[in-house]
Amino acid sequence: MTKVNTIHDVARCAGVSVATVSRVLNGHTSVSEKTRLAVENAIKTLNYQPNANAKALAMNNTDTIGVVVTDVADPFFAILVKAVDAVAEQCNKSILIGTGYHNAAKERQAIENLIRKRCNCLVVHSKALSDEVLQSFLERIPGMVIINRLIKGFENRCVNIDNQKGAFLATEMLIRLGHRRIGYLGSNHPITDKDERLNGYKSAMQHYKLPMPEYAIAESSPDFEGGERAMIELLTANNDLSAVVSYNDTMAAGALSVLYENNIPVPQQFSVIGFDDMPVARYLTPKLTTIRYPIEIMATYATKLALSLVDEAYSQPKFVCFNPTLVVRASTLPYIG
């Protein structure tokens, strides 16, 4: 049986990344002449035939941009979709939305449905699908961009942020305020963000040589109810915590509710810090100190990048490094003992 060579074989033969091969196939001018020749020679040597569907999609410049998110009811994804729609409107295009609900089968179906509807530009937020499955989609769809995740070989088509750094900053702030017994409210969803943010908390505690209390980490669903359950778990298992770092702002809001019900004043007796800087953070009592996740800026960049990958009329946006930043509000104070 004759072996069918893939884009990965071409990349290995040419000594470049899969993303570079993809850019050569799509005729982008950002590739050097030497690299372009190496890729073209590898294609000839291996008799590589690019996926016909990918070619057709690249040439079929429709007026629709596809967006895949976890849940449109979540404020984080609502902001993402709104940013994509704003770029689409500027370019006289419309958007179609697919939802995955943290489920691999639903995420795959959402992507395939958008492809069938002739969306040649896709902005995809996927947490359940494997890297291998996403790689196969990226090979097929030249205008597909992944947001909030890094896929090996396609780094230049991924828009990501350093979640570990963000949680480190949050924990470090509390430590600098004098807190030593710091808990963590984590997500129980099997996604990379969960591990990255938890590792950021642990790294900060280790960096400052602080022991983590034995029962200082509680995980639950990343919503208001989950924040309540996780905060109750921490209070039940500990009587000396003075602060918590939360996986996101909604869990932090749930934690604030539990602390209020237990007559633990925030921030006078207990400090709380969130993550994402969603609109709710500004309207809680007290207003929530948090880590800003620039999802609107990132989604705007991702959409412009997707457009530039399939249509030379759209210039590729200049890459910027997306970093989490600290937003200090009223839910944190120095530890008073």
Structure keywords:
12 helices, 11 strands, five-stranded parallel β-sheet, alpha/beta, four-stranded parallel β-sheet, 337 residues
Provide a descriptive summary of the structure in words.
- Mean pLDDT is 90; it is low at 55-59.
- 45% of the residues lie in helices and 13% in strands.
- With 337 residues, the protein is of the alpha/beta class.
- Helix 7 (131-140) links the parallel strand 3 (121-124) and strand 4 (144-147).
- Helix 10 packs across helix 11 (249-261).
- The protein starts with 6 loop residues before the first helix and ends in a 10-residue tail after the last strand.
- The strands form 3 sheets. It has a 5-stranded parallel sheet, with helices on both faces.
- The chain has helices at 7-14, 18-25, 33-46, 52-59, 75-90, 104-116, 131-140, 163-176, 192-207, 224-237, 249-261, 295-310; strands spanning 64-69, 94-99, 121-124, 144-147, 158-159, 182-187, 217-220, 243-246, 271-273, 290-292, 325-327.
